[in-house]
Each structure stands twice: as C-alpha cells, then as structure tokens.
Amino acid sequence: MRDYFWRSLTVATALVFLGAACGDDSASTSPDTPAPSSTAAVDSDTTTTAPSGHLETDGGRHTHGAATTPAVEPYPSVSVRILEDPSGGWLLHSVPANFRLAPENVSTEHIDGEGHMHLYIDGVKIMRLYGEWHQLPPLAAGVHEIRVELSSNDHSAMAINGTIVDDTATLEVSAAEATLATDGPTDDTGSVGHDMSGMEPEEGGSMDEMESQQTISVDIVGGEPVGGHQRVDVGLNSEVAILVTSDTSEEIHVHGYDILHPVAVGQPLEFSFLAEIPGVFEVELEGSGRLLLQLTVS
Fold first, then answer.
1. Structural contact between residues 250 and 285, judged by C-beta atoms closer than 8 angstroms
2. pLDDT recorded at residue 279
3. Domain assignment of residue 112, given as a range
4. CA distance 239 to 292
5. Which of 102, 137, 176, 258 satisfies CB 3.0 to 4.6 Å to 114 for a cystine?
C-alpha cells in the first residue's frame, strides 16, 4: 500500500512539472526577445511600387516609375530591334508575346494580358506605342539607349517578380547619320527644346512677338481632359504655349522635351516652350499617366 502511494505521488508530480514546461513553451516571448517574423503570401493582384520609384536621370529628366502590376502566367515579354529606314532615320520593331495591344482600352482598368507599350530613349519617356512598328524620332550623334516596356491599361508597368517587363537596344549614331542637330540653343539639362516660361520679353516687345506662338488650352475635370485628349500639329521652331486649368493638383509633363510643371486646384497654369525637336510627343498628367495632348512637331 505504501509503495502504491509513493508511485502515485511520483506520477502526479511528474505530470505537474510536464504541464508547467508545456505552458512555458507556448507562452509569448519576453519583452527583451523580438517575436519571430512570419512569411505572408503575396496577392498577385496587388499593385506595388517599382524598385526604382520615380527615377531622375543624370540629366535631371524625369521618367515614369510610379507603379508596377504583377503579370500572370503565361508571362508576357517584349523583344526590340532597330532597322535603318531607307528614307532616313530608323524603324523600331517592338514585338510583345503573351500580351495583346489594346489601344481601345487605354487609361481604363487593368486587364490581365493586355495594354500598350512605353518608349524610352536615353531614360526619357517619349510616347506610348500601340503597334509593333514605329518611326524613331530624330536622334543626335552618339550612343542611345532605346527601351520599350509593357504597360497595363492603367499605365502601370507590367512586372514579373518585381522586375519590369521590357527590352533594350543600343543604337550608335554617327555624325553623318544624325538626324537631329545639336548646335542649337540648349537648356541646363542638355535638351535642345527648352522651356520659355521664365523668359522675359525684350524691352518694347511682348512674349507673343518673340516667336510665332501657338496656344493650346486644356481643362481637366475629375482628373481627365474635357473632351478627351487632343492631337495638335505644331510648327517646327515655333513657340507653343499651353494653358491648363484643373480641379486636381497634379504635374504636367511634356515628354521628349522633358518639361514638368505643377498645376493646383483653382490656379491656372501657363507655360511655353520652343518646339525645336521634330516628332510626336505626349503631354500627360505625371501622377496618373492620363494623356492630355499628342503634339506632332514638324
């Protein structure tokens, strides 16, 4: 009987210590010990910020790097090649795979597997591409980086595991092949076309008399241009004045000429520049990517 009593007492004591030990293992860590980190699943439909963010290149020029949208399988890709145009200049051939070019859905919601492309030259966004073939704008002598990236309908860059879906080609232009002269006036970023907004008219004259001026008005309501985006022909070497009213605070970006100006609610924006670079250039809202104007300078 005595042996049974001591065996029972020993088992009970062991169970008590075992329960205490299990309680210590399941308890939270002490204040001095950081809790272990956990790995969360990533939602493939979540829009993420591109690693580069809003990139500013060495020339002070801005490029879009606002957001990326994860691509889904089958993953899209794009290949770029450049061919000489027999009539002068170069042709850009950009071929997307597993990706449908859908210009009819531009500036709408993201749809997997469709959108458009963005053309960058030397880190500066030039324009959107809605087709595989495109005539490159005039280029100065030197080595140029031609990059094309796939973009969703909402203008976010398509990405696979955080890497933007794009392709790049390098084009070396000799002095004899150059289609853009560089001996004209330049601004402090090296761009031939320059912002004239801060220039004062000469004594006895007016800003309108400095150059033949073309004025373009844009009214923005709800973050969109009233009447849709405009396509405007601009005379080469003419002065272009752009007047903007907006009910949204944003930035107006003239791509190619790399002119960037803020516009505020209730404060009309007016700026002008000399259209010295021929080609097709987009003017858009920098934050949303909403297209306002397409300027054809010739």
1. yes
2. 83
3. 68-173
4. 19
5. 102
